[in-house]
């Protein structure tokens, strides 16, 4: 956590990944993020992976540093409280339907300068999830082994994560606009627009329209440059990429393949210097030359040779191996052991991705227990008396963690 | 494009994907993004896909709505001009090395409240690219067909895209902090921290430490819920997900498998209602029941049935098919035909991902030609006279597109 967005508050009504990460990033920068959930937890409260006590290790990491207000959102009184809270706070991030009880126009009736950032599936309001959005835009057709034509979904919920980060950006942009102009408004972020928009930004839409055909599947090879996975003599599979001239020259030098490359240039009538595209077009021959040399080395020796020559490479790991890497987790200042998690399990948790040299990086705060801050929020933000709060709790409209 | 960040300026010195998308998102929201490149184009200027004239369809989409200043950055005079520009503008996004001539502390000597957002590979300054970061954190081990143990890289540069969006968020957060406190600073965003931090946020780090082992590979099945790819009678492969109770009930109803599900519950001694985890644990039997029913339908009929019952599903597409989808491209207001691209090729290009009801969405602006705005920037931002500018151009320190 950092104190960067101190003084900024927002209400988060959300589930799963995209919307919670938007709130998480802001909370990790010091914003007061009030996560409102159904009493007892919403639909993502026990999302796997879970502990033996059914505490979600996903939920408790996606919701760190937030405060929890638990309401009975199945009752009009609970929904009215949430509407009132949103109007008081003035900033909302949600993935609830655009036409539901958290419709922006309805909320804005009581708070004209409200900023709402709404994460959606399709723009028309129909549901899309990461895996279906991914299938819809064709990345699944390009991912996976060359020999196997079946589409492959990436396991990383990449569209959710991108949408969450972009939502945090859009929230700050809209808040800035309000500060300068006094105007609020709704920002809608459909997952499918972010998926196809990203494909367009990367030139993929223009590419298929220009070439009139789909790109071929490349397995683990990188399009348009020299990059692929290789296996060393001792059986270590690693990724190798030479995406600029310096990296390419370093690769040729490290493996001592200058003569082999020159021979390919003569045979094919091309020049590889300063031409990533030519290297990619003749990758069959270049890959064969690399493969031959790589197979002469054990991984440790090859890694040293590559490092000395500025070659970008890295072994494939499992998550188990990754969490034991000092650079990634055990000695990475982004991580700190946390023992105050709702699950009771103690482990290294991530703080903000960003590192700000000179600013104090605080230990990652735990996720709240459901309803942990209900009383405080109803008092401080809503201005309710202890009698009123007690009544809401007695009636089961608000819930606490006690 | 939208007018949301009007009045905000930043200098972008960057290449490839992550850093350019940060500038792109801000430019699409109306910020004045000054992209500074080597005269003739930097290392990503001809990144594939390219046209027959070697114009990059990737570059011209990642750099829309920016202005271009071309300098000879191999000469001290060119680098000094860039340093001076950065100090004048006060905001910098870059993926150049932390210790190079754009080191934050050096720049801040002439502009104490400078905000720098720096995208890095590893935190120690060594290079990591999307494909190597992905291999390092273990997502490649989980991606791909179950029967094939080889790691699979996702083709989407997901870590680059996430880093770019988070960088845009971090830039606005840091600018906000400066507006409130007067303090600038550097924000460092290593790709590997974002990759392992995301794994932690999703509960993956806690999971392997809790279970003591790696998660098994699931192919196109979704962890912890009911979701997988299936094939209809007429051979259409589609993705199906039922991530909440409503979707699960809709699926059971749509396929008429209530009896089959009840039989599984009795046989296994479990209850599936309100228990995503139990459904996932017994997915072998549930998937078999779904598979059996799905194979009785042609895709068109099944899609209608699913839609009526609120089931989340979608066919796998190629990019060629995606660009012909009215909801994604041809009738999507996010897209507009652009004919003023540097490549000369006319095609639908994406504007901002965000849609703001009530605000005008302008047609996506084209990417600049290299040096297109050099004279204007040197005059308006740097305050140079036409004589001084002419001299810089004559000496080859600044370049124009003429």
UniProtKB/TrEMBL annotation, chains A, B:
Query: Which Pfam family would be a valid example here?
Result: CoA_transf_3
InterPro entries membership: CoA-transferase_III, CoA-Trfase_fam_III, CoA-Trfase_III_dom3_sf, CoA-Trfase_III_dom_1_sf
The record's keywords, sorted A to Z, are: Isomerase
Record-level Gene Ontology MF annotations: isomerase activity
The name on file for this protein is: 2-methylfumaryl-CoA isomerase
Originating organism = Novosphingobium kunmingense
